[in-house]
């Protein structure tokens, strides 16, 4: 079913708004514009908020155990210290947010931002394996997981899925923008 034949009253299949500036809006290539746009802007909020928080001592100390126990990220503490590592991550998260924002208008940035988001959540999901306290021993151990850090980390699986969904849609639109 093509986008033009989708029912416009169904909120899942809302078509993109008029594109009077001829912008290459990444979501325009998909039938579920509203859902993809919601997906994008939800990720933007997460990355802006979490990225900004990385510039506080509270957040730097909060993520320190995840970083310290990670073979992928542990070097950041060695090189930059606890707050410096948090700054580096904050800059990357804010950069991801900027790429996702620009991606609403240019598909190449949508691909970049989505890929950066995917990398973020793949890395944070590895913390599930490396951070002490994920398995809840009072409930018999794994597969029972603790609220924090276990369930806190597991929710990143949904954010990873959102990022992959946006990347796929962005690639489709990027291919379409080269044909025009």
Compact overview of the structure:
66% of the residues lie in helices and 0% in strands.
Task: Describe the protein.
- About 65% of the residues lie in helices and about 0% in strands.
- With about 180 residues, it is mainly alpha-helical.
- Residues about 1-15 have low confidence and may be disordered.
- The protein contains 6 helices and no strands.
- The protein has one domain (about 25-180).
- InterPro entries: RclC-like (IPR007339).
- It holds the Pfam family DUF417.
- Keywords: Membrane, Transmembrane, Transmembrane helix.
Features:
single chain, 180 residues, mainly alpha, globular, disordered N terminus, membrane, DUF417 domain-containing protein, transmembrane
Note the run of SSEs as H and E: HHHHHH
Q: Please tell me how large the radius of gyration is.
A: 19 Å
Major sheet attributes: none
Distance between the termini: 21 Å
Q: What is the number of helical segments per DSSP (H or I, 4+ residues)? A: 6
Mean pLDDT, rounded to whole units?
85
Shape: globular
Low-confidence stretches: 1-15
Assign a percent range to the helix content. Answer: 55-70%
Strand content: under 5%
How many β strands by DSSP? Answer: 0
What is the number of independent domains? 1
Structural class estimated from helices and strands: mainly alpha
């Amino acid at each position: 079913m093509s986008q033009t034949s989708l029912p416009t009253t169904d909120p899942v299949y809302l078509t993109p708004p008029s594109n009077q500036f001829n912008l290459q809006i990444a979501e325009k290539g998909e039938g579920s514009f509203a859902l993809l746009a919601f997906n994008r802007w939800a990720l933007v909020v997460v990355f802006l908020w979490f990225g900004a928080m990385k510039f506080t001592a509270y957040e730097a100390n909060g993520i320190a155990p995840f970083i310290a126990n990670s073979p992928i990220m542990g070097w950041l503490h060695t090189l930059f210290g606890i707050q410096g590592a948090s700054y580096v991550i904050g800059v990357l998260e804010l950069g991801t947010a900027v790429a996702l924002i620009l991606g609403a208008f240019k598909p190449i940035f949508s691909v970049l931002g989505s890929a950066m988001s995917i990398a973020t959540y793949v890395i944070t999901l590895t913390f599930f394996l490396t951070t002490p306290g994920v398995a809840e021993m009072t409930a018999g151990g794994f597969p029972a997981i603790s609220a924090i850090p276990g369930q806190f980390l597991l929710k990143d699986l949904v954010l990873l899925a959102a990022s992959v969904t946006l990347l796929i849609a962005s690639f489709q639109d990027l291919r379409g923008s080269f044909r025009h």
